[in-house]
Task: inverse folding
């Protein structure tokens, strides 16, 4: 049963045109396809009695088992599958029996045991499930025949397989295997075996000729000389045909009418060239449509269901053609092109094979085009005639019928009713769109099928689903043409889906559906060394692809996803090559960081980061080599800075940022790229801070009584520079950022209600905005501006740029407050320089983190001040300090701050009620709350101290990314060149490994490493071979041996307990158990010694 699981129902052979009356039967046939004969005038029916006795390979027709025999076969097979733990186990049982009977047959099957076992059971299950449909059974059997063309299937071998399968059935379900059922199995297996022999004998040579000549024509290139080197055939039997009379480097060919075209270099170009030369330019439109699918049809000539699907799609395209379609024209051009491309190997057998192939294609396409005319209009009219109530009723009826025919389908359609109706609506929409835009819909259906691979959807559910649709639509008493048209389009859609699911259902995808890391490792172990990465990263069906890794992440199969990342980022090596999936991972998924950050709670991100680091287990001079493969974390594929690394900062995880790989990347970017540029930008701001301090705090206090014109000019100049160089750029920057965020509708919400531009989401930009407002108000209250019109007036201090005019004096108080806020804000913004020292930065962050405890203390003190001030005021005392509530609150605040005079306390003793309240207040605030504050600060500090280094690195990393973003491309390119990421780096001395990494030395005791991180293997170095089983390397590990010993001890203990309960008989048992225990202990001792 070769390649059944991957190729599924795709079958071989060519079909005769359907009689007009058989259209309904064709539409009702199974979605896996229908074979209507192999160029035989009449369908031959198999002799059941002959099939029971022996293999019949002289004829191949439809097999019709009696109803009772058919029922016995299917029920016995279902019972056999139910008796096994899983289908894989059933396949393993069949596989084992077959090759135990004939070990020499194993050389015929190159695939791994687990894959072959799965194909055995899937192929047999498909055969037995189609027994009730003889036509579909014949198609499936043809499939198997064409899939075994390269294997010499003989009658003795068929008998061997048949007897082995019957032996398995008798051993597992012998009690229910009746004579009728056994006869049915004999007939079925003999029928399939005879069909394989028949197909191989009758059609194998033609299919082989088609494939080999097509491959030769596809890769053919025109040589410089027809007889150059005298070579006709290239490597691996692939011809290197030449075009007679043409030269590859020769002049362009002149066409009719003076047109010039290039020399054709492949089949498509040669076809179009010959079509133009032969005068078929008027048919170029429909010929191009056929040419687009011609390769798929040729390569699937041995798969009649796939071939029929391609013909159906092509028919949908051709039925829209306005040109007259003359199929003989395409045949003539096709044969001429093939003769031109492979002239040295072309012979009579090629002429016969290609003529046979095209004649069958022509019949299939003609028949389908004739049936398709008017179907689109029928489907369109039907769908437009449905109102909301009719659609709802139709959907209910569809799912009711479907669940009756396939009860297991309820396990996959668990969504709400509205969701199920939505799916049904999409089905109707697709049934019309397949007529309107067939090629685009095939792409969408392929993508949908790949998603169903991830859902683990059984293909057995598609036939009853389509049947439910057909019955529901027919029950609506609509036009018979509309019913048949909808049935045909739904069948085509389902065939495409089934094919996509079967081709995409690799064993890796099945492991994802079970979320079993063990099954995944078993599945991937059979992959070749060169294809192992692609098995995990890309499954392609047609032009659509799906990533198993992303599907595992998005579907919640995190155990398999973790195992995938570990497998991809494990360094493996043989004598010739290193294999490491880092480049493949990031090339396929450049956004892998964002994807893993979205599910960071599952621990996938640390797994990936661990795989980007290699440490040597050897040390030299107390130092250890470490290779960080961080090329893709630093740069994109085009060499630009990888800004997606910012997601690691946005997670705000102090533990993740301290991961060795992440810490190394940001430390290197900071020290070698960002620190100098950041310092340059802050030097300018440092100069502005000095200027503000000079203009606001120093110059106004120098020679206040005897100001000179030079002093006033300096004050004016310093303030003007501060306004222009400090306020101007800040104002422009904030206006621009605000406008940009408003246009993009990018907001953050204060208290979940008040919108604010998103760029104000951090404290620094918010402080800058506050500084802008303060400095704008300062400009409006600037004393120098107020005195410009009256500098030389009649007032003390008059003169150039004076600040002592009456108008300025009136603004003095407001301006001084604004001035002090401006100076404080400048000093506050200067604190970002602390990131040059992680210890200082961590200290500052610690202070900010414990401020919340101080806020809580102030809140409690405020509450107590308000409460006690109100209480004292209610006593009716005439003391000045507590006469009113505000006066009492002020006095209590001075007591807390230690500013209340002692002599006033002495005077308060004459007022016992007031004094007693003050004593209670002092105990509550100065003793209880103050000590509680100390305890809270201590606890908060201990809590946050462990993470402060991580938060400091987060702050620096954020600045690093922002700084590098603003760098010129030339500077970034020079930095990348200095890293030499394209050069291969060593592992241990003399062991040159892969490129894309940076090597450093770290202290040997920093990260002790006792095991080799690289998995090295001997034996063959062929890239086609899979890696040897790594589990064998762990069989002798101490942990596994200790677990084995533990199981022996537990088993022996249970036996001893049974012996104690069993009297004299138990004594013997106990002795046996003691002996077993002793032998187990001895075994364990020897294991430990060997360890």
Result:
């Amino acid at each position: 049963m070769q390649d059944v699981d991957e190729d599924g129902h795709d079958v071989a052979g060519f079909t005769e045109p359907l009689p007009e009356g058989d259209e309904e039967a064709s539409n009702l046939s199974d979605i896996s396809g229908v074979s209507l004969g192999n160029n035989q005038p009449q369908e031959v029916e198999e002799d059941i009695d002959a099939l029971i006795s022996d293999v019949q390979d002289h004829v191949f027709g439809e097999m019709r088992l009696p109803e009772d025999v058919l029922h016995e076969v299917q029920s016995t097979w279902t019972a056999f599958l139910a008796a096994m733990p899983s289908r894989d186990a059933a396949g393993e049982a069949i596989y084992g029996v077959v090759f135990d009977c004939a070990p020499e047959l194993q050389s015929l099957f190159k695939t791994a045991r687990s894959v072959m076992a799965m194909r055995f059971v899937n192929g047999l299950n498909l055969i037995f499930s189609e027994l009730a449909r003889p036509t579909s059974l014949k198609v499936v059997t043809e499939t198997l025949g064409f899939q075994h063309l390269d294997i010499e299937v003989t009658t003795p071998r068929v008998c061997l397989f048949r007897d082995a399968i019957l032996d398995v059935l008798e051993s597992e379900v012998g009690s229910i295997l009746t004579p009728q059922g056994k006869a049915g199995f004999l007939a079925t297996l003999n029928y399939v075996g005879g069909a394989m022999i028949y197909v191989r004998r009758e059609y194998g040579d033609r299919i082989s000729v088609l494939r080999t000549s097509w491959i030769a024509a596809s890769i053919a290139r025109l040589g410089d000389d027809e007889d150059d080197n005298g070579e006709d055939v290239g490597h691996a039997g692939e011809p290197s045909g030449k075009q007679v009379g043409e030269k590859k480097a020769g002049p362009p060919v002149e066409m009719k009418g003076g047109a010039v075209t290039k020399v054709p270099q492949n089949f498509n170009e040669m076809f179009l060239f010959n079509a133009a030369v032969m005068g078929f330019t008027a048919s170029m439109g429909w010929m191009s449509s056929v040419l687009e699918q011609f390769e798929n049809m040729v390569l699937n000539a041995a798969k009649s269901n796939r071939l029929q699907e391609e013909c159906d799609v092509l028919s949908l395209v051709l039925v829209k053609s306005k040109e007259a379609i003359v199929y003989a024209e395409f045949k003539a051009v096709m044969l001429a092109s093939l003769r031109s491309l492979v002239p040295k190997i072309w012979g009579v057998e090629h002429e016969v094979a290609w003529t046979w192939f095209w004649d069958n294609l022509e019949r299939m396409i003609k028949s389908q085009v004739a049936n398709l005319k008017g179907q689109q209009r029928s489907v369109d009219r039907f769908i437009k005639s449905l109102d909301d109530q009719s659609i709802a009723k139709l959907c209910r009826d569809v799912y009711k019928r479907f669940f009756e025919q396939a009860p297991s389908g309820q396990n996959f359609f668990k969504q709400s009713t509205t969701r199920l109706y939505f799916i049904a609506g999409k089905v109707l929409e697709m049934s019309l769109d397949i007529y309107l835009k067939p090629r685009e819909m095939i792409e969408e259906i392929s993508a949908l099928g790949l998603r169903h691979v991830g859902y683990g959807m059984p293909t057995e559910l598609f036939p009853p689903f389509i049947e439910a649709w057909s019955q529901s639509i027919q029950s609506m008493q609509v036009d018979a043409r509309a019913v048949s048209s909808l049935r045909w389009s739904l069948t085509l859609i389902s065939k495409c889906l089934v094919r996509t699911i079967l081709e995409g259902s690799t064993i890796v995808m099945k492991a994802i559906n079970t979320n079993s890391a063990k099954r995944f490792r078993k599945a991937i172990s059979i992959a070749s060394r060169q294809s192992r990465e692609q098995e995990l990263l890309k499954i392609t069906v047609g032009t659509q692809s799906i990533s198993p890794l992303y599907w595992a992440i998005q579907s919640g199969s995190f155990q398999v996803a973790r195992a995938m990342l570990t497998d991809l980022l494990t360094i493996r090596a043989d004598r010739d090559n290193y294999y490491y999936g880092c480049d493949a991972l990031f090339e396929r998924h450049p956004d892998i960081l964002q994807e893993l950050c979205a599910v960071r709670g599952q621990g996938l991100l640390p797994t990936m980061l661990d795989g980007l680091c290699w440490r040597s287990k050897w040390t030299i001079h107390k130092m250890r080599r470490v290779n960080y493969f961080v090329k893709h974390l630093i740069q994109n594929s085009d060499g630009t800075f990888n800004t997606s690394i910012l997601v690691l900062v946005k997670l705000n995880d102090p533990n993740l940022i301290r991961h060795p790989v992440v810490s190394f990347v940001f430390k290197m970017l900071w020290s070698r790229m960002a620190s100098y540029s950041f310092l340059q930008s802050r030097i300018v701001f440092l100069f502005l801070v000095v200027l503000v301090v000079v203009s606001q705090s120093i110059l106004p206090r120098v020679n206040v009584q005897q100001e000179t014109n030079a002093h006033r000019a300096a004050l004016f100049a310093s303030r003007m520079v501060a306004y222009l160089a400090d306020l101007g750029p800040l104002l422009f920057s904030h206006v621009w950022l605000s406008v940009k965020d408003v246009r993009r509708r990018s907001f953050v919400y204060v208290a979940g209600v008040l919108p604010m531009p998103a760029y104000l989401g951090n404290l620094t930009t918010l402080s800058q905005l506050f500084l802008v407002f303060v400095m704008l108000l300062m400009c409006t209250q600037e004393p120098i501006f107020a005195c410009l019109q009256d500098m030389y007036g009649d007032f003390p201090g008059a003169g150039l740029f004076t600040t002592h005019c009456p108008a300025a004096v009136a603004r003095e108080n407001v301006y001084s407050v604004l001035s002090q806020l401006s100076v404080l804000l400048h000093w506050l913004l200067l604190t970002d320089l602390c990131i040059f020292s992680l210890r200082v930065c961590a200290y500052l962050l610690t202070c900010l983190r414990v401020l919340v405890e101080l806020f809580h203390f102030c809140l409690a003190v405020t509450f107590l001040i308000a409460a006690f001030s109100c209480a004292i005021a209610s006593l009716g005392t005439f003391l000045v300090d507590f006469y009113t509530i505000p006066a009492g609150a002020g006095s209590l605040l001075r007591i807390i701050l230690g500013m209340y005079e002692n002599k006033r306390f002495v005077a308060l003793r004459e007022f016992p009620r007031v004094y007693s309240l003050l004593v209670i207040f002092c105990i509550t605030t100065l003793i209880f709350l103050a000590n509680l504050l100390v305890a809270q600060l201590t606890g908060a500090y201990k809590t946050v101290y462990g993470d402060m280094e991580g938060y400091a690195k987060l702050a620096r990393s954020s600045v690093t990314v922002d700084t590098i973003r603003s760098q010129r491309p030339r500077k970034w390119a020079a930095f990348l060149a200095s890293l030499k990421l394209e050069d291969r780096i060593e592992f241990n001395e003399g062991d040159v490994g892969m490129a894309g990494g940076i090597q450093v030395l770290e202290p040997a005791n920093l990260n002790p490493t006792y095991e080799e991180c690289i998995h090295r293997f001997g034996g063959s170095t062929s890239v086609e071979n899979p890696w040897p089983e790594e589990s064998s390397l762990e069989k002798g590990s101490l942990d596994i041996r200790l677990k084995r010993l533990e199981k022996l001890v537990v088993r022996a203990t249970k036996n001893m307990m049974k012996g104690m309960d069993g009297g004299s008989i138990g004594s013997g048992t106990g002795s046996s158990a003691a002996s077993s225990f002793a032998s187990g202990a001895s075994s364990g001792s020897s294991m430990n010694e060997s360890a």
In short: Residues 4-211 form a domain with the Globin-like fold (CATH 1.10.490.10). The radius of gyration is 42 Å.
